[in-house]
Input
Amino acid sequence: MSTERPVRVRRSPEAARENILAACEAILLEKGPQALKLADVAAGAGVANATVLHHFGSIDGVQTALMTRMIRQLVERVAVDFSQHQDAVGRVGAGARALFDAFGTRGGARLAAWLELTGEARRMTAIRQAVQEVSALRMQLDGPPDDGAVQDFMLVCISMALGVGLFGATLADLLGRPPERIREIALDLIEARIRQETGAQG
Amino acid sequence: MSTERPVRVRRSPEAARENILAACEAILLEKGPQALKLADVAAGAGVANATVLHHFGSIDGVQTALMTRMIRQLVERVAVDFSQHQDAVGRVGAGARALFDAFGTRGGARLAAWLELTGEARRMTAIRQAVQEVSALRMQLDGPPDDGAVQDFMLVCISMALGVGLFGATLADLLGRPPERIREIALDLIEARIRQETGAQG
DNA sequence: CGTTCTGTTGACATTTTTGTCGGTAGCGGC
DNA sequence: GCCGCTACCGACAAAAATGTCAACAGAACG
Output
C-alpha cells in the first residue's frame, strides 16, 4: 500500500563511528571476536555494509579502531580509581581493585584475550601502548622507584585480574559457586601480600 | 622430464585424524584460532582439503575434535602431576603447580581462552566435561570434603593459572622482565595462603 | 529555493572459504 | 594376480565475506 521509504538518519562522522564501534563492542561481548563480521557489525549498528566501510576503510580498520577505543576506555577507568587514593599503600590495593573491575566488566579481559590469541604485530602495539600508559600513570603518581620486584608484582596482579575477569564467571557457573567470590578471594590474596610486605618493611 | 607422480600416503583413519589434529594444534599455538582455515589445516597436515573434510565432515568438526583432544591431553597431564603427591596438603601446592604447568605449556591457556571467547553451547559441554573430570579426579584422591570454600579457592587457583599462562609471557616481555618470575610469584601467593590456613587450623 | 558537501545506500564485483563429486590408488584378503 | 574397500585427490560448485561504485538524500549555506 504505502510507499514508505526507509528513513535515513544522517549522523556526524564522529557519531557515526561511535555508533558503529558501540555495536562492535556489544557483539564482542556477546558473541566473541570471531563474530565481528562486516554484515553483523552493520546490522548491529543499523546501517548498511557500505557505511561501515566508508568510515573505517575495511573490516580490519574497524577492529583496530575498536581496540584503540576499548584500550583508551580501560586506561581511563583504571586511572580514575587509581587516583582516588592519596597514600601509595592504599593505592596498590585500590589499583588492584580497579584492575579487576576494569578487566571484569565491559569486556576488557575478552579484548586482551583476543589480542593475545590473534597476536599480530599491529595489535601488539596497542597492548604495548596501554601498558606504557598505565605504567606512566603509576610512575607519575608514585614516583620513579619502579624496581623489578614492584614491576613483577604488578604483572602478577594484572595477570590475575585478566584470568579472573576472563574465566571467573564461567568457572564459577560451572561449579555452581557465586561468581563474585572468586574476585574477592583473589583480591584478598593480593592485599594479604601487600600487608605482609609493608608490615615487614615499615 | 620425469613423469613423477606425487606419492600418496595412505594412513589408518586414526592416524589420519591424528596427523590433521596435530597440524591444527601447531597452527592454533602459532597463529591463533582464527587461522584455523580449512586450506591452512590441510596444507599443514600435508593432505588435500577434501581429505580433511572426509575425516571430520566440516571445519567445525575439526575444531570440535581439536578441542576434545586438547582437553583430554590437558586433563591427563594435570592428573599425572596431581597424583605424584601422597599427602593432601602437599597436593594442593603440587596441584597448583601442575595447573600452572598445564596451562602455561602446550597452549592449554590458549585453548581455554578460545573456548571462552567462542563460548557456544556445544563447546561449553567440552569445558564442562573437563571440569567434571578434574573434579572427580580430585575427589577420588582426596575424598568428598569438597566444601564451598575449598571449591572457591580452587577456582581462584585455576583462574590465576589461566591468566598467568595466557598473558604472563607477553606481559613480562612488554616490560622486559624475566617471564618465569610471574609464575613463581603467583605460586608463592597461593602457597603462602595455604601455609597460613593449615597453620591456623592445625 | 538552489547549490554544495558528504553521509548513506542498494546493487554488484571480487575474494575467500567451505563443501561436493567422480575418479584414483594404496593395501589387505583371497 | 585381482578384487573390494576406502583413504585420498583434483576439479569444480556453493556459500560467505569483503569491498566497489554510482546514485540518493539530509543539512548547512547562500
